[in-house]
Every structure is written in C-alpha cells, then in structure tokens.
Amino acid sequence: MAEQRRDRQSHLTSLTLGDPSVVLDTTLNAVFHTIIVFSLFLHFAGHNAPGGGFIAGLVAGAGLILRVITGRETLRSRIAIPPHLLLGAGVLLVTGTALTSLVLGNALLEHHTWELDIPVLGTAKTTSALPFDTGIYLVVVGVIAALIEALVAEPGAADAAESEEPG
Amino acid sequence: MIWVLVIHVVVAAVAAMLGSRLCARVFWVALIAPASTVVWAIAKASDAHDGTPIVQHRDWIPELGLDFRFVVDEFALMMLFIVGGIGVLVMAYASQYFDDEEGLGRFTALLTIFAGAMTGLVTADSLLMIFVFWELTSITSYGLIGFKDTKSAARGAATQALIITGAGGLALLAGLILLRISTDSSTLSGLESVEVGGTIASSAAVLILIGCFTKSAQVPFHGWLPGAMSAPTPVSAYLHSATMVKAGVFLVARLAPHLAELGPWRPMTLGFGLATMVWGGYRALRQTDLKLLLAYGTVSQLGMLVAVLGAGESKLLFAGTALLAAHAVFKASLFMVVGIVDHSTHTREISELSGLRRAMPVVAVTAAVGGASMAGIIGLAGFLAKEAAILGLLQSKIAGIDLATAVFVGASALTAAYTVRFLVGAFGDVPDVETPMHRPGVLLVAPAALLVIPTVVFGIADGWATTLVADASGALDDKAATFDLKLWPGITTAFVLSLLAVGGGLALYAIRRPIEQVQTRLGRDRDAADLFQDGLQGVLHGAARVVGVIQPGSLPLYLAVILVAVFTLPLLLILGDSGLPADRVFAESPLQTAVVGATMVAALLLALAQRRFAAVLLLGTVGLGSASLFVIQGAPDLALTQLLVETVSVAIYVFVLRHLTSRFKAPQLSGANLLRAGVAALVGTTVFLLTITVVADRTAEPVDAELTARSYSEADGSNVVNVTLVDFRGFDTVGEALVLVVAAVGVVALVRANRGSDGSDLGRPAASTEDAHG
Q1: Which of B236, B258, B140, B133 is nearest to B188 (CA)?
Q2: Which of A95, B136, B522, B742 has its CA 20 to 30 A from that of B216?
Q3: Closest CA to B515 of B371, B403, B418
Q4: How far A119 CA lies from chain B's nearest CA (Å)?
Q5: C-alpha span between B452 and B110 (Å, rounded)
Q6: Can you tell me the distance from the alpha carbon of A152 to that of B205, in angstroms, rounded to the nearest whole number?
Q7: B742 contacts in A (CB within 8 Å)?
C-alpha cells in the first residue's frame, strides 16, 4: 500500500507538481506556438492537401496537452479559452454553416466557392466548407481541452484527494 | 383562420412576458385571443351559412397529408362560438378569480395556447392536424391542471390526465392513420365522397373511439376528470366542461355520419356512452364536494353526448348538437358558480354551506337556471335538447334502442337528482351553520350570469334555437337540418318520458338518505382513479424488476453481451458458408506483414501487461501499427489522423493514470478471465474472417472512384478525404461533431460526479467551479 502511494505521488510530481523545469518550459513555450501555427496551416491546407479541421484540431489539442504539463501557471491560464466556449462556438459554426445553405434555398451543406484576388499574393480560393471545417476544428480542440480540464485536477484538489485517503 | 391561431400564439407569448408585471390583469391581455375567434366567427358567419364551408389552406408537409387546412362549416362555426365565447367569459372571470400570485404569466399563456389549440381542433380538416391540435390540448391541460405545482395532489392529477389522454391520443393517431389507409383520404371533408368499410376501417373506428373516450372521460377512462378538479376553477369551467372534454364528443359527431355503419361503432358509443351516463350520475349522487359533484355530472353528460351523437342517425345528430351547445353553456356557468362559492366562502363542502341563497341572490338564480337546464326543465335550452334526444331515440331503428332509451331516461332521472342535490347543497340551509363569506366581485358573477341569457332565450324562442341547431347539425348530415325543437311538444311519449325523468329525479332526491346508506353499505367502491394508481404502480414495479435483472451495472458484462451478440451471427454465417473465398488476400506486401506482425506482438503484450503505464504505451503502439498500415496504403489523411489520435489519447490516459494504482490486479487463471479470453477470441476470429471474406467477396463498385472524380469538379477540393468529410458526407460530420461534444460533456460530468462523491471537490479553485455554472 505504501509503495502504491509513493507510486501515485511520483506520477503527480512528474506531471503537475514539483519544481518547474526551466528548460522544458521554455522549449515547450516556443514549440507551442509553432504547433498552433502548424495546426492552422493544416487546417487551411486541408481542402486540397492532407489536413483539415479534424486533423488540425488534434494537432492543436496535442499542443495544448504539452502546454498543460508545463508546471508554471494555473491550469485555467494554460488553456486560455474555456472549453465550453470552444465546444459551443464549434457546434454553432457547424450547424450554422449547414443551415445557412438550407436557408438560402440550397440543399443542406451545399457549399459555395469564392475566388478572391489579393494584390501581390495572387488569387486565393475559398469555399464555405471552410467555416464548417473551422467548426470541426473548434469542437476537437474543445473536447481535448474539456478532457484535460476534467482529468487534470488542480494540484490542490489532487492533494486533498490524497490526504483524505485512509492510508 | 390561420391568423386567428397566430394571434393566439402571439398573445400567449405576450401574456407569458407580462404575467409578472400585470398580475391578474394579464387575463385582459389574454382575452384578446378568444375574442379574435369570436370576431372571426361573426365576420364569417354569413359566408358559412351559404352552405359552402369556408376553406383555407396552406401547405406544411403535403407528403404526409399534414397541412394547415381549415374547413369552417356551420358545425365548426358553432364550436367556434362556444370555444371563443366561453373563452372570453372565462378570461374575464379569471381576472377576478385569481389574486396576484406567482406563475400567472405561465398560466395565462397556457390557457391561451389551449384556446388556440381548441380553435384549431374544431376547424382543422387534415386528420393529422386534428391529432396535432388534440395533443396540444392534452399538453396544455397538463400544465393547467398542475398549476398549483407545490401540491402533490395537483401534480398527480395532472400526470394522470396526461397519461390517460396521452395514451388515448396514441390510439387516436393509429386510428386516424388506419382510417387514411382504408379510405385513401387524409382529410375529414374527403370522407364524404368515399365508401367506408372493411376490417381496417373497423379497427380504425375502434382506435379512434378509444381516443375519444379517454379525452371525453368515458367509463372506464373517466378517472382523470374528477382528479382534474384540483385545477383552478376557470380551468375546470373552460377545459373540463365546455371545451376540451368536448373534443372527443366533437370528433365522434364529425365521424359518426361516416363511420356509424361500421360493426363496432354503435355498440361502443351506445354501450360506453350510456354506461358512463349512469355511472357518472350515480357517483355524482354521493359527492359532498360541489365541484366533484359537478365533475361527475359532467362525466355523466359526456356519456350522454357520446351515446346520442355516436348513433349517427340524422335525428340524433340534430339532438346531440343541441345537447352539446346547451351543455357547454350551462355547465360553464355552473362551474363558475362553484368558483364563486369557493372564492367567497373558502369551502365547497355541502355540509358547510348555508344561507348563500340570501347572501348572493344573483348567483343563486344563475345556478338555478343552469341547473334547471341541466335537469331538463321546460322553458330552457336543456329541455329542448333532451326532448329532441328522447324523440330521436324513440324513432331510431338501431338494434337494442329500446333498452338504450330506458337507460337514457333512467340516467336523466339521476341527472335531475344530482342537480337538486347540487342546488340545495350550495344554496340551501344547513341547521346551525352560518357560513362566513365575503361578497363576490362583479366580474365573477357577470360571466356566469351572462351565460344564463342564451339558456333562457333559446329555451323559449324555439324557432331561433331550431335554426341554429339545424344549421350546425346540417353540416354533419344534410337530413339533420329538417328537424325542429319545440317549446311545447304536446303530450307525446317523449314529453311523458321527460316528465318521468324529472319526476324520477325528484323522487330519487326525496329518498336520498336510504340511497346514501345503500351507497355507503356497498363500501368504498374502487374507482377508476384507484385502478389507475394501482396500474401505474404495477408498471413501475415491474419495470424496476426487469431493469434490475437486465441492467446489473457491470460494464464488463455489458461489453461481453454486446460483443457476443454482434459477432456470433457473422461468425456462424461465415462458418456455415463454403468457408474462406478462393481468391483471398492475406497481405499485399511484405511490409504489411511485418507491420501487422509487430502490432500483434504489441497487442499480445498488452493483454499480459501488469503495469498500467506499460499497457497504455502498448495500446499506443497498436494504434501506431494501424497508422503505419495507412501510410503503406498511401492514405496520408487517415495516417495523420490515427497518429494524432493515438498521441493525444496516450497523453490523456496518462492524466487518468495518476488517479489509479500503477499495477493491475495480479492476473490469475479464473473462470471469469477464461470467459473474457473466450469473448476476445470470438471477436478476434470473427473480425479476421469477416475482413478476409468481405474484401474478397466485394460485389458493389467502390465509391472512391466516383468521389475522387467529383471531388474537384463539384466541391473545389482536391483532398478527397476532406471533401468527403465536409461536403459529400457533411451531414455525418455534423452528427459526429455533436457526438464528440456530448461525449466531452459526459466525461466532464462523470469525472466531476465521482470527485464530488468522495468529498474531494472542496479543494477545487473558484475558476473551475465557475466553469461548471457557465
């Protein structure tokens, strides 16, 4: 029993407690933004190249996990946006896009394509599938964020749980 | 018509919003809605009298025959006057009946929506639309009966009413659908031009009648109506006497001309109707609560209406229409009187009421006129109607009608008896009792008294009454328009029977003491309400037992049952077939074999792993194996997705692991484990065989060629996987996104629930708790 307790303690220490590692934190902070940018790239590239909202959302979610295991800030500030907002916005975008085409008299989820001439950069092409895919992106990130928030209790709470256990 | 309904909805919304600010004055706002019905009916009255009904039509779901199609003929017009007119009076009455209390906005909104539903019900032509309005009245009635939602009696009564009328509504729906199948007509008006017959039509008739009987409180479904008396009196006066309970009667009247010739129809309407008439009257005779007395009286009268209108003969349709109108008017008035008495004296017990005759003479006269009309005293509308009904029964050629007539007259005697009981009980004197009271307000008395006017006017001016009733019933059956109502019919058999009924009633009242003793001696008879409660309890206990057996709460067991159920059948099919297909392919390249081999090793190690962390890593390895297979097959999107899912889930597993012990229970060779191994072997074998067989036995063209071809041309995307997700199969994606969200919410809730139960939630910081409320 005592051994098991120490086991659990050691897991806790390695994840959320203990001295923050400066090297780890700095690296992850740098990597985090790269990951988010990469996920956005995957997201926008998705319609014509490997990627898309689901994949990009998973990448961003993985980035979020990395950020969470750095120990310096509180959990909430590490996630930045409350998961339920992400989920809500995602569902709103997904259903909204689906219904918009219906309201406009087209079939459900019938998408429209626009071509934009942007000076210097050239022609960009985008479709109304993009907001739909963005909704998926947000839902996936939101789910991961919600799971993190639910499962990674604040150190204080985890401590309380530990100390209350008969040992 | 559609606009009248829109007005109801808008007024209901406004009333709901203004309820808390206006208090009881909110009823003046709500009054607009039934008033609009009346105004519309008056404006259109001349149009409808041409003999051609007013038809308004707007498509809703034409494929189902579910359309906003309203046909207003003279019968509907009469119902509109009843629904709208009594609605206006009830709203005015309610404005003084209620003190300023909580929830009036909601109450008023429900009452208004109910009025709208009733208006729609009596004018709708589409059979399914009738059902929609029908259910709407049930649902609003639930909220209205249960208005005093802090009282368990009110909640119970509301639930009972909802369950009984809701179950009847289902029967009605089935009946209407069968009727449509057998006649190929989705509208009421369409029934006129078709022959109705056959087994399907008969089944339809039975189901529809069951629906009507529950709604109109026929024995044995009548239990909810007396229970519904726990509703505020305006609701009782409006829903449970004048309108909603008439819905069943209304539908019987509408359908009787078309369906009465069907085998089960007349035995059911006459049998149940007369039984209800007698039972209601009998029960009314022993009530000491004025409102319950009236409620059982209403049950009795509804039975009479079903029996008379259900017969479907022109003469009886004519008489039934007269009864329907007369009953709506005097019963609403009588209920309002009970409300006034209750309001002024705070009691409805006969033994506690004394001296009210002198204290509120106008109310007493109102009640006397209404009661006399109910009992069938000459010179009042009730007499004309009942006289016509007896005449109709005497001249009818239906089998067994003589017995029915005798029962009818006997039950009418009961009616007269409980009417006297009601009047004497409310306004008579009880020795040594002085009832404390305050004077009722003008707005309480005026609506009740106003309803006396039509009772008297139409009772004396028999020519006007004849015109009205003949027009209305003529819309049901052309021949019905040829009959008339007579103030003085002369000394005929029918008149003698009428006198006999009233005289019998007085005699019954005279010997009330012995009757009460007999009723008491028969014991506390088990009424429908008890039967209902017992039945409900039985169902709940049975359900609890069944659930206890099939839901023991063991997740491994559920999983085993599901897996075995799903995989046994395919396995049997494959084994029973000729075995594996000849051109089976196990692997397309050595690389695949290598990857699969590694994956299998990982899976095997996973099953044997003793440390949880090792198990999680091995699980990730298995996932990576599949991802590698996708890479080999050239599916970057799938591989990427799989890779990321594995990564993220391993990380999340690690979060979970913190809360668990680091090792599994030591593995042992127990029966349960062997069983698990067996299930695993079954699933593994089946999936393997299934995959081999299915890939080799492909018959349909793969969709990928078509999707690839259409991807860029139609959806402007060259990544087929993504285009499929967001466009071709976009609707699936919507569903999946919602599933994800629900799953996330579920996980969060589960984790929090567990945390809360061992009390460790206390240490959680404010930020997270805030989130729980957000």
Answers
A1: B258
A2: B522
A3: B418
A4: 22
A5: 27
A6: 62
A7: none
DSSP secondary-structure letter at B702? Answer: P
Residues 627-666 of B with CB under 8 A from A: 636-637, 640-641, 644-645, 647-648, 651-652, 654-659, 661-663
Alpha-carbon distance of B71 to A124, in angstroms, equals: 57
Give pLDDT, residue A139.
93
Question: Higher-confidence residue: B759 or B629?
Answer: B629
Dihedral angle over CA of B705, B706, B709, B713, nearest 10: -160
With H, G, I as helix, E, B as strand and everything else as coil, classify residue B288.
Answer: coil
User: What is the dihedral angle through the alpha carbons of B24, B25, B29, B31, rounded to the nearest 10 degrees?
Assistant: 70
CA–CA separation, B134 vs B211, rounded Å? 10
Q: Pick the residue from chain A with its C-alpha nearest to B653.
A: A151
Is A101 a residue whose pLDDT tops 80? no
Calculate the alpha carbon distances from A81 to A25, A29, A77, A155, B347 in Å: 20, 17, 8, 20, 60
Distance CA(B765)–CA(B322), nearest Å, equals: 72
- pLDDT at residue B273 greater than cutoff 90: yes
What angle, 0 to 180 degrees and rounded to 10, lies between the N-to-C axes of helices B152-183 and B528-550? 80
Q: Are B475 and B80 within 8 A, CB to CB?
A: no
Q: List the single residue in B658, B723, B752 with the smallest CB-CB distance to A150.
A: B752
Please tell me what DSSP assigns to residue A124.
Answer: E
CB A146 within 8 A of CB B747: yes
Asked if B715's CB is within 8 angstroms of A111's CB, the reply is yes
Q: Which of residues 696-755 of B touch A (CB under 8 A)?
A: 715-719, 721-723, 725-727, 730-731, 733-734, 737-738, 740-741, 743-745, 747-748, 751-752, 755
Contact B599, B626 (CB under 8 A): yes
What span, in angstroms and rounded, lies between the C-alpha atoms of B546 and B552?
10
Are B129 and B67 spatial neighbours (Cβ–Cβ below 8 Å)?
A: yes
**Beta partners for residue B72, in sequence order:** B54
Asked whether the bond before B264 is cis by omega within 30 degrees of 0, the reply is: no
> Exposure of B540 by Cβ count < 10 A (0-12 exposed, 13-18 middle, 19+ buried)?
exposed
Question: pTM value?
Answer: 0.71
Residue A99 CA, chain-centre distance (Å), reads 25
φ/ψ of residue B193, rounded to 5: -100, 10
End-to-end CA distance of chain B: 44
Answer whether B726 sits within 8 Å of A47, measured CB to CB: yes
pLDDT at B481: 80
In a 10 Å sphere around its CB, with 0-12 CB exposed, 13-18 middle and 19+ buried, how is residue A129 labelled? buried
pLDDT at B64: 76
pLDDT at residue B581, as a whole number: 73
First to last CA, chain A: 8
B534-549: per-residue pLDDT in tens? Answer: 888 899 999 999 988 8
Contact B727, A101 (CB under 8 A): no
Q: How many CB atoms lie within 10 A of CB A115?
A: 9
Task: Count helices and strands (H / E) in chain A.
Answer: 7, 2
**Residue A111 banded pLDDT, cuts 50, 70, 90:** low
Which residues lie below 8 Å from residue B407, measured CB to CB, with a gap of 6+?
B274, B277, B278
- A·B CB contacts under 8 A: 190
Q: Is B614 on the interface with A (CB under 8 A)?
A: no
CB-CB contact of B285 with B519 (8 Å) = yes
Which segment of A15-19, B62-66, B379-383, B764-768 scores lowest on mean pLDDT?
B764-768
Does the predicted interface ipTM exceed a cut of 0.90? no
Tell how strand B54-61 and strand B66-72 pair up.
antiparallel
User: Could you tell me the two tokens for A37?
Assistant: 């940018």
Confidence of residue A158 (pLDDT cuts 50, 70, 90): very low
